[in-house]
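Before relying on records like the one below, remember that each one covers exactly one chain. Contacts with other chains, cofactors or solvent are not represented anywhere in the record.
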Amino acid sequence: MLLLLACTTPVDKDSSRDPVVDTAGEDTGGAPDTGADSGADSGDSATDTGEPDPPADDGWPAQFVAPYVDATGYPTVKVGEIPAENGVDHYTLGFVVAASGSECTATWGTYYSLEVGPSAWEGGGEYFLYDQIAQLRADGGDVMLSFGGAANTPIEAACTSVEAVVAEYVRVIETLDLTRIDFDIEGSWVAHPASISRRSAAIAELQAWAAAEGRALHVWYTLPVLPSGLTADGVAVLQSAVDAGVVLDGVNVMTMDYGSGQAPNPEEKMGEYGIEAIESVHAQLTSLWPSLSEEEVWARVASTPMIGQNDVAGEVFDLDDAAQTVAFAEAHGVGMLGFWSINRDHPCEAETEWAQSTCSGYVDVPDWAFSRAFAAYGD
């Protein structure tokens, strides 16, 4: 997300602990054999028209809520336990990035290895995010994983070949047994030609690999937005993906942090500005996928506001804005709603004009108020 949250350096952990989820296929010596060259076959409809074919069913609802979890924020969010409290059972976990600017190894925010994952201490014992994911799935929920984000180096920039990027993607997907992934592309990376091109080619190969394996794999892009829509750089990112043959489930836009020049007098208008943004994006995606119906394009639009106080002073997304957003999404069949972040869906000890990493900025809005406002959306 645009919010550059300061993460507490995690405590040391036993790096020899086995992951809770399947770790098959962790060989990173090269990209998997996809049976296809870079990009989709020229006969594929996604390549010919730029329009996505329906992805394989993975059991997720057609319309759903999946708020972001700052997985490297401390303490680690207990995604397996909180659905009983907040009513939300699908989450987007961020962020997986390269170990460093020159080290082509997937990590959680550079803090945690992929093999062990985030963890925290409570009552003298350590608990692990991967155990929480297993509990969430056992209860009927699931997670989507997000690559990238506002901080650190994306895998596509640290790795110098498409094959190396694909190998890391596969390692992440198999380690967490994922059917859904997201690419959060923002900051300078939205205008970084090398990583954009490498990402597009790698995802196309990844999707060929998933198809050959009989694995459902849904791909979303998350991009910054203004009330007027995606920037030219954002549109170029999408065009690169389409040109490479990437099949996108949809485009999630960060309806937050616009600035006074783009969203003047934002008080009590953040819901309105967010709706303007996704209406603008809908028009842009109609041009990208011209043969889709209006309803089909809406199903490929997602909105992720920043709950409570945004990074920009004066921009505050309140519960009325949440209700307005949900009502619009229901009326138009928006594919996904999220928010940044579950970690922040708590009251602060004192009112603040600056965004906090562990609370919304309100003192009188209770725990999980925003989660409950969004939870009823979808199938």
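The longest strand covers residues 90-100.
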